Structures are given as C-alpha cells and as structure tokens.
Amino acid sequence: MRPTSTAPLRDRRPAPLRRTLATALAAAGVLGLVAGPPESRPTPVRTAAATSNTTTVFSYTKTKNWSATYLHYAPDGGAWTTAPGLPMEAACTDWVKKTVDLGSATGLRATFNNGSGTWDNNGGENYALGTGNITVEDGVIAHSDPCADTGDGTGDGSGNKATVYYSTATTGWTTANIHYAPAGGSWTTAPGVGMEPACTGWWKKTLDIGTAASLKAAFNNGNGVWDNNNSSDYTIPTGTTTVKDRTVTADAKDPCAAQAPDTQAPTAPTGVTASATHTSVVVSWAAATDDTGVAKYQVTRTGGTRGTVVTDVTSTVFSDTGLEEKTTYAYTVRAVDAAGNTSPASAAATATTGEKAPEPAAGTPLGTDPRKDPIYFVLTARFFDGDGSNNRGGSQHVKSGNAANDDPMFRGDFKGLIGKLDYIKALGFSAVWVTPVVLNRSDYDYHGYHGYDFYRVDPRLESDGASYQDLINAAHAKGMKIYQDVVYNHSSRWGAKGLFTPTVYGVRDAQWSWYYDEKNDGFAYDGLTVEPKSGKSYYNGDLWSTAEPAGNTCLNWSKPTGGKSPEGYTLYNCQWPGPTSGMFPKQYYHQCWIGNWEGEDSRSCWLHEDLADFDTESTPVQNYLIGAYDKYIDMGVDGFRVDTAVHIPRVTWNRRFLPAIQERVTRKFGAEAARNFFVFGEVAAFVNDKWNRGSVNHSAQFYTWKERKEYSADDEKAAIEQYDHEEQLGTGNQPTSANAFLDGNTYHTPDHSRFSGMNIIDMRMHMNFGDAQNAYNNGKDSDDSVNDATYNVVYVDSHDYGPNKSSNRYSGGTDAWAENMALMWTFRGIPTLYYGSEIEFQKGKQIDCGPTCPLASTGRAYYGDHLAGSVTASDFGKADSATGQVATTLAQPLVEHVQRLNRIRRAVPALQMGQYSTDGITGPMAFKRRYTSGGTDSFALVTVTGGATFTGIPNGTYTDAVTGDVKTVAGGSLSVAAPGKGNLRVYVLNGPGKIGGDGPYLK
C-alpha cells in the first residue's frame, strides 16, 4: 500500500519517497524436527498396560511450590469429581502423582489445585489427558514417567550406563523425552522416558542398557515435535555423551559441571496494567530481568466466584477471557527463570469487567499445509458490495471524483465477499488474502493500512449476519482459508486507541473551521457512525483547540510556520503529526524521519506523515500488538500476511512477535495447527539482484532465518547490534539452504531448524514478471538463501506495483499472462492472484493515485460489476452454475486457464509441496519436482512454453496431465516438444492422467 496524505498542508517537507505497505508457523523447534513419531524406527510393541483404561497423572510441583496438590477430573463422557478432587501423592523429587480408573473412557479432562482455592485450569481450557503415564509440567503435557530410570535406567543396575545430555537451547523446548533402543534391543514406547533438567538449556538422562555398547535414540518435546537427526536417529555410546544442534560428542564433559546452581530469582515484574473489554481482560507488564534470563511468567488472578487461577505465559501480555460480568479482578505477575527460581509478586493491577458481549463463536483454522492452497488476494472494500448501508465516502469523496461515479471508497464488505466465495472457489483458489480488517482512521483508508483501533474490526466492513467471524466460518465451511493482512509497523496519524492517541494537533481559527470540527467529548469514532454536530462519519473533532491545552507536548504550538496552504491559509505548527513535533512519546513511537531506505533508520523511523511509526522495541507496544492479533488468531484465521515486515528489525520479529503467534496458535488450536499457520512477510526489495543493494538486513530472504548469536537483552540495543553484525558479515556469510532442492531425483526431509517462522513474498520474481523466463531465472538464483523457497508467495502484480516497479497493473497481454500463470502454478512456491487479473481487469491503469483521481480509473477499481448474478461451486476449479454477468466473467480465456491450472496443481502433490532440480535438463523453463511423504511419492517433469529434454530420471511410465500423452522411459531420458506460449507439459510418473479438458492455452 502506498500511503497518501490528504491534508491541505503542502510546504512542510518534500514529498516522501514512495514505498510499499501492502502473516505455517515455523516448524516447531530445530534440528530436523518433525511432527509425529520418527518414521525410521520400528513401531514399539504395545503392552497390556498401554491399552488399559487407567491413567497415572504426574504433576510438576517445583514452580507452583504448593504444599499439597489435588487432581480434579472427569472421565470423557463422565462426571467431575467433587471439588477439590483427589489428593495426589509424592512420586519423586518435584513430582506428585495419582493413578485413576477411567472405566471404559479413553481419556479425561483435568485441573489441579492446592486444596485452598488456587487452581491451574490450563488458562480456562482445562487439560485433555489420555491413558497411561502422563506428565503435566507448567502447562505442557507429555506421555512419560518422570520418575522412571532416575538412577540407573530401565535395567537392574548392573548393566552398561549411558548418560545423555540433550540441549534445548536452540529449540526452546520446555521439556524433553528420550526415545531409545539399546543396540540389538527394542525401542521404548513413544515418546520414551522423561529427561531431567540439568542446567539452563540442558536435559539429562542416565540409562541402563544392559550388555549393549551403544543405543539408538531420538528426542521429542512430549507434544508431537521430534528431533530424529533428520530421520537418521542418533547413535550414542556408553559413558557421557552430549547432543547439541545435531552434533554428538562422546566421552564429553558434563556441560553443567562448571555452572554453579542458579539460585538467583528474577526481579519482580513492574508496570503491570489490566484493562477490561466486556468480559475479557488484557494484562501487560514490563519485562523482568534475571542473571540467566526469564523463562516465563506466572499470572495470578483473584476475584469472582471461581477462586484463584494461576496461568503460565512466555510473553509479557496475557488475554484473560470468559470472565464473569461486572466483576473486579486483581492480577499479580511473577517471573520464573529456567531453574525454577521465582520472583516476588508484582504490585497488583485491577480491572472491572462489563456486560458480556454477544461475541460470535470462534472458528478453527483448517490447519493444512499452506503450500496446497493457491491464494486469491482481494481489497475487501473494492471487491463486492453486499450491504449498501455500510458504504462510506470519507472526506475526499467529492474531491477524488468518486462521488461523481457513485463509488464510495468503502464499498465492498464481508457480506459481499461471503456471497462471492463460490466465485473464488470456482476459479480454483482455496485461500483468500484479505486486506487489514482493524478499524482504520485516515481520510482515505479503505485499503486498511492506517490502523486506529487494532482490537476492533472496522464496522464499514461488517453487517448483520456478515461479521468477520462469519466470513472466516463461511470460508472454512467451503474448505477455504482466510489470510489476514496485519500491520505491526505503524498506526494511523491519530495514534492507536488503547495505547496512545494524541488529543490535539493544532489551532482552529476562522480559516480552518471547515477542516476542524467542533469538539464532541461524548462521541467515539468508529468510521461508520455519523457525528451529529458535523454530520460526518469521518469526524475530526478531537484534533484541534482554540487555546493551548494543559499538558501539551507539541513544540511551538500555535505558532505560524511562515507557509501557506494551497488555499492561502496560514499554516501553524502542530497542525499535522510528525515524529519530531513532540506529539508522540518515545515510549510508543519512533521520533525520526527515514533518510536511507536501505539503512538502519528505515527500521526505526517514520515512513510517511500519515503513518505513525510504532517503537516496536518498546514493551508496551509489543504487548498492545500481540494482544490485538491474539484476538484474530482466536477467531480462527489461517495465517497472517505481514505488511512492511522489513521496517521492523528481524531480531524483534524473532524475539517477540513470531514466538507470540506460535504460542497463541498452539495454546488455542494445538501444535499441528501452529505448524501450518502461514505467516508471510512483505520485505519490499525493488531490485533485480540477489541481495537488496548489498544490504542483507533489507533483503527478503534474510527474514526467513533465526538469529545466529545473542544480542543485548534491551530490544532497542539488540536491533542495532543485529543490524551491524549482519551487515559486517555481508552477503557472502549468510546461511544457505537446500530445502527447496532435490538431491538428484530424491526428495529429502527439509531442515527447518533455523527457520524464523516468517515466509516471504517472492519480490524478486514479482519484479521480473515482465517476462516469465526472467522471473524464473531470478527466482532460482535466490532460492539457496531462503530457508525454504517452496513456501514463497509468488505473484505478478498487486495493489502496490506491477513488474519492474511499474505503477500500473500488468498489461503484457493475454498470452504473457497465460505463460506467467503456467510458470507460477507449476514452479516452487504458492501462486497468488490479485483480484480481477483473471480477466486482465484494469490492465495498464495506474494502480493508485490517492484522492487525486477517482478509484474507478485505477487498479483498485470496484470489481463487483463483473460478479453480478449468481454462481455456485462445490469443488475447486469448476462452477456448478452461473448466471448473469458473473457467468460471462467465468467464460474468459484466462479464467478457464487458471481453473485448469488449479485442478492440475491440486491433483499432483509434487506441484504443491515438491522440491525441484534442473540437473540433467535442457529447456528454457524446465524442471523436475518431487514430493515424498508416507504413502505419497509424486514425481513430475515440467516444461513451460519451450521444449525440453530430461536425462537421468527414473524409468517408468509418465503421463502428461495436460494432454494425457503417455511416455515409457527405459533409458532414463524423456524429450518433450515445445508446447507453445502459455502452454506447458506436466509428465507425472505413474500419474493420474489428463486433468480437465482442453482450453485456450492448455491443450
């Protein structure tokens, strides 16, 4: 998104440089971590105990330090015990246990308490436990006996011993299990046996392996995330061995021997605040300090009728939901380090809830691999108008020319989008990227990138029966995902409601009375409601004063600048916001203008006067944003597209925002949903080289990696240290990856151990899509520096730019569009289409001109006229029925092309998730792709436009998904004639045959 100032003030500063503004979660942990048990080991033999309907629940006591622990539970389908439940008995150091008979039930719901009114109910979710041995340690569930093998393993004490130390410093696991088999022996029952904490970042287990001289082992966190040495398992000898970052060191020194026991507790958290909205409370605080680092925080809630509740969190913000109405709650916070040392409690913060809001039920993300889902990108307010009552033109309605076209900037809405989901499904798309949904505030904010109230959905997008939650639920019901555009970098010039909002900007005199409205203290801006005194929904009333207000911080308030507006009016200081005016405090906002777009200040200064730049290294700002986006995660969105990601330091993403996303999705929906929660960032780099003007910090691929060293505990200092460190290392010393590439013809398990959690928009391909061949060559050239380029989001043009930084929508012609699409839908990455490109909508038109021309003449024009009528689709890539104008739209040649491409891609897993190679291949745009997982082995040979020869390939029968042509390979070679521009060939080994019928290009 390109911000557009609409103020009448013209002489303050030069026109700002143009820039672009348009977030699965990281595979948990590192070291070749995989979800589920390692496939390379034999399935353990079940014992009778493993199938009995009893469970032994172990609870960790060191952190809570309760004098007694009770288990309050209900077998699945059964009744709860009488509170407080059954007393648990001592098991071993720091553990208590209770064995319960579940009858015919195969699991139970459980909570814990101290018998005196203090509860651990898993943050209000209760614990869902199964049968067998189960541990609950600080909110983490594992299936093991923490007291087994504590001295000499599982043997009789006379056998060989192996003492294993395992490092979780990189993975961040909060518990560790070892799953092992002595040489010649059987594997333990997954997930193995629990390891004990040895020192910070290390877990230990001594095993009795009988007469064996070594063992095979893998490690897991008890929640389905494994380190199995990239499916090879670890070989560990007798004696003392360390395993760290996939390196096994035999006869190792005790890594904890030199460390004195950590007995120093963290400092008590300060600055605790609590604010209530309806029956939810958001608690935030300043980070505590510790000599070895704070591992987590314990939030204690008192008040209401439910007793005391303690919840563990790892961030400095906690959202407490589902509380009682009109009730005062008090919150204190303690900090806990990795050794379990606990700080004193903070001062209490209180909040009183209001009436319960009629909030819609939360959705559940689909949770599947995001690479399966091609993306359709819509500007919600410009797509389809389902409810005319929420249309708003804003202050520029007449000036822009929109009024003359009866085309208010806020026109499309969720009701319209819900009504046309079948159109998108008929095109074949299974994910929809929507522009930001939070309440915006600017004079021209239909696109959503001027956030004002980040905790509220913009009412101009919602209708009765068509809320944002309704959109999410409707999409999921059709098997479609919703990716929400999110902004962490900046707010509107009005600040951010609930964090900081400047209340006065400047003088209102006779000349400016038309611009500044009369103040109305009883009115709250929501973008939709008309303020009665001014008659405006874009009411401006809290931005002026006739006398200098008490507490004014703006410099030289009311003094003339010496300049004039275009109308000839006197300009005054403080009439318009800016980082150097004194209006925005350092605690919340940066206080400088960008000078170098490839320099450090581009991450810590304002982009534009309309966009107040958050100090994202400030704890209150981090808490505000984390709390806000937790709300949308809880609603069940499937991922975040991250606006202006490059303007926030990578270390801040890696320390704060990305882990917070992972934690929230995991807590709410589980580890599998978190692994597939798709975060993709806009790291705008408008150059054709691999590294953006030689600056690693401003290159897209840089954001896909974790940090490689520790920086200052102060986030602001850490950001500068990280920038300097990586710039000094330079482009030649950046990490590389083979995750996107085949090993010959073989698919290999990708190594996501160093993945940051953020994927990227492929800016380099985007910039070069003026020619498909050029985009292909540039994309390949960058793939070894991206953590996993198979997750790259690939598009030709967008709401910001066309290829080669063109300000116009792509106009290369229908044949070129078809060729680009053929490449995007078969090459690595996730194909993405900007709304209307399927009919070359507004081709050649200027994408954005702000309020200086009508939207109807731009690339952001209203699309609804092309969707009038009805359409139904029960499957992807095919309309069941269509009437009216939408039927004409669906008959266009590029529509038919993209429909068939989507059906072919959906039928061939290699085209969705496969790695690729060009080894042994001739042809301008030719490659082979393979994806192997479980019973799936998909191998495809692809050539786009030109002919190709593939050598060194597996022998067998190959069928073209486009024509149905069958070729039998006996000598490892296959040749394909040129299919023609916009056409392609996809020869699949043991493939499904021809997919769909011939069309204008695929034939």
From TrEMBL:
Residues 342-362 have a biased composition (Low complexity). The keyword Signal applies. InterPro entries: CBM25, FN3_dom, FN3_sf, GH, GH13_cat_dom, Ig-like_fold. Residues 342-370 are annotated as: Disordered. It holds the Pfam family CBM_25. Transmembrane segments: none annotated. Keywords: Carbohydrate metabolism, Glycosidase, Hydrolase, Metal-binding, Polysaccharide degradation, Signal. This is Carbohydrate binding domain-containing protein. Residues 265-356 form the Fibronectin type-III domain.
